[in-house]
Amino acid sequence: MPESRIKALESALNVLEDSPYFNCGYGSVLNLNGEVEMDASIADGKTGRFSAVAAIRFIRNPVSVARAVMEKTGAVILAGDGALEFARKHGFRESNCISAEQLSTWQKARENLARGKKPDLNLFTGLEHHADTVGCVVWDGNGLAAASSTGGCSLKMPGRVGDTPCLGGGIFASRTSAVVCTGMGEAFIETLTAKYVDEKIESGLHPQQAAELALKRLHSLKGAQGGILALDARGRFGSAFNAAQFPVIIMVNGKTLEDYEPVNLRQLLRVH
Ligand code: ASP
């Protein structure tokens, strides 16, 4: 039986993967070739297990495939066609995951590129009123866990994999903390930002301080934009961002915290 924290993560992310308004599952941004390639992962802090899929195509709920990788295989990461074959074998729902809006924004961006103009689109969300990569952290009273799912960056090179399936880069969970990140994946991977947040919490910082410190470090090392959400084993949480937006919802014992806002570091850590 999967632990309740893993089920909770999967259920939360499946809803977002099925929505066209988030850059994951159906609604993912398109790569240079006009295809959706997605990354997703689950980190279980209690068992120390991690599993991910990378550059997977045609599967509506990549985070569920990541869970199956954890539960049914000895592998940690499955990528590309191998991940798709595994998902098909286990009967996961298929879809080309291309929403009409993402397709039309991609077509315009390609026309601009062909004319030597800048592609006029939000790299992370594809569309102005859409949201980015999704992530979730959970403490179920027994352990901490994190999960994330994304279509990556608009117009990425086919085969490009971001930080979402990179343990320590865009996601981490231990007995100390659960952390998820969004933003320019390459910067998160090269700075091991999610692991850094865990280390800071382990050394005694509150998750809020750890998230802010990690974002400042990311900005000073790489000049990158992003958002970080962290939770510790005492149920304390924190979040900070310097990207255009970073909507966060916190639920405690089934109740949503009213008026919760992540700390906005955009003024301080502006990306030019
Ligand atoms: N971190 C994701 C990636 O680089 C994208 C994002 O979070 O916006 O693939």
Describe this structure in words.
Helix 1 runs antiparallel to helix 2 and helix 6 packs antiparallel against helix 7. The strands form three sheets. The protein has a five-stranded mixed beta sheet, with helices on one face. Strands 6-7-8-9-12 form a five-stranded mixed beta sheet. It has one domain: (Glycosyl)asparaginase (Glutamine Phosphoribosylpyrophosphate, subunit 1, domain 1, 4-Layer Sandwich), CATH 3.60.20.30. With 272 residues, it is of the alpha+beta class. The protein has seven helices and twelve strands. The structure holds aspartic acid. Aspartic acid binds next to strand 7. The site of aspartic acid has 14 residues, from strand 7.
Portion of residues within helices: 25-40%
CATH superfamily: (Glycosyl)asparaginase
Number of helices: 7
CATH architecture: 4-Layer Sandwich
Mean pLDDT: 94
Biggest sheet record:
5 strands, mixed
Approximate shape: globular
The helix/strand order is HEEHEHHEEEEHHHEEEEE
Specify Rg, calculated over alpha carbons.
17 Å
Main CATH class: Alpha Beta
Distance between the termini: 48 Å
Q: Going across the major beta sheet, what is the strand order?
A: 3-2-1-5-4
Main structural class? alpha+beta
Number of domains: 1
What name does the CATH topology carry?
Glutamine Phosphoribosylpyrophosphate, subunit 1, domain 1
Stretches where pLDDT is under 50 for at least 5 consecutive residues are none
Total E-strand runs: 12
- Beta-strand proportion: 15-25%
Q: What hetero molecules are in the model? A: aspartic acid
